[in-house]
Amino acid sequence: MAVSESADMAACGTAAPLVKSVTWDARPARCEWSATTREVAPTLSICLRCRDGREAEHQGVRGGARLAEAICQHAAQQGCDVGLRGISCMSQCKRPCVISLTAPEAFTYVFGDLDPSRPDHVQAILDLMPLYNIAPEGYLARDARPEPLRASILGRLPAIGSSNAIVSALSAPTPAGKLL
Question: What φ, ψ does residue 79 adopt, rounded to 5°?
């Protein structure tokens, strides 16, 4: 596994390193994606600037960067073939640490309150991906998600053109202010 770090954090007022990109030479095993479900593996985005309040204990490295590192290590150990990317800020500062999971023509999920020091949180993220991949349009009801990701959801956004039953078409209001 190779991790690239950057100390360019002047915009945030700190020089703490951030994980910018992660690559590894693992092949799919436990987290294998099936071509019969989605042609493209889902992408997991991880906010690298999330502060979890324990930066002093970790030489100034932010919680989001530590979560990214933990996810990458677990994914490599388990042989997961996962699309990962670090995001400079996902604008959920009151709910750190934050991730999102997305794929073409599928729901996008945003989760917060994730603790980089809790292996069960990291494992839940990895366990979520195959479930998401096989679900129609990536739709996962609350009880279909791993336990740590049930209460920590910040958003579930349907893909444009979704035919899922939870999506309703709306019309513009009439002059009287009522929906058509």
Answer: 75, 30
Residue 97 lies in a domain: yes
CATH no. for residue 128? 3.40.30.10
Positive or negative: CA dihedral 112, 115, 120, 125: positive
Does 180 reside within a domain? no
Sign of CA dihedral 163, 167, 173, 179: positive
Q: Are strands 43-47 and 99-102 parallel, antiparallel or unpaired?
A: antiparallel
How many domains does the chain divide into? 1
Are the C-beta atoms of 111 and 100 separated by less than 8 Å? yes
Q: CA 71, CA 6: separation in Å to the nearest integer?
A: 18
pLDDT digit string, tens, across residues 95-135 = 999 999 999 999 999 999 999 999 999 999 999 988 998 99
The encoded tokens of residue 9 equal 């954090």
